[in-house]
Amino acid sequence: DWIINGLPSDSGSIDNAVILFETNKQTLIIDPQKQAYKFLEKLYKTDFVLYKKTEDSNENFKFIENCIKTGKTLVFDYISFDIPPEAEPLLNMDIIMVNGQKHLNFNDNVEVLLHANFKVFFISYLTNPSFNPELYGRISIINFSVTKSGLTEQLLSVIINQEAPAEEIERMNILQKQFQLSDTINKIEIEILEKLNLSKETL
What we know:
By secondary structure, the chain is α/β, with parallel strands linked by helices. The protein is 47% helix and 16% strand.
């Protein structure tokens, strides 16, 4: 699904996508060529929402709250040094249970019902950004900048797709299977670790 939805097929982009969807932290993406932005926009389609800050802080918080409740994929872009103050609660993700349902402790301790599909991404279009040092321990920073080898792989993919489309489709299918296998292995490893921890607790 990743490549079909616009993820570049070079190994660097694939590795970045694996980290993007497997990390437990929120992610800040360095994306000068906007390849990650276009990929996320196409992947999440109508659920993709771009945050546009207004002068009304209450309106900004209401917009974010609505995205949390309705399960949108919320994107904050043009990050240069730090994330917007109104997005701070999204880094901490202080989740509490209310009547058996997950709620996010948000603005001024307002408890917002957390939709299972809600996601948030932060994007910087700067080539060599200098972020607030405090961010590094709180967020996963992923560099989607196109490298020389990555660009070579992408151009090769375009050429193969034009000259030998059947072979390119086969290559894509193999990559998709590799992604699925990697994801399955990761889930199995997590399940084994959870069972080991549980067995230790019961001893």
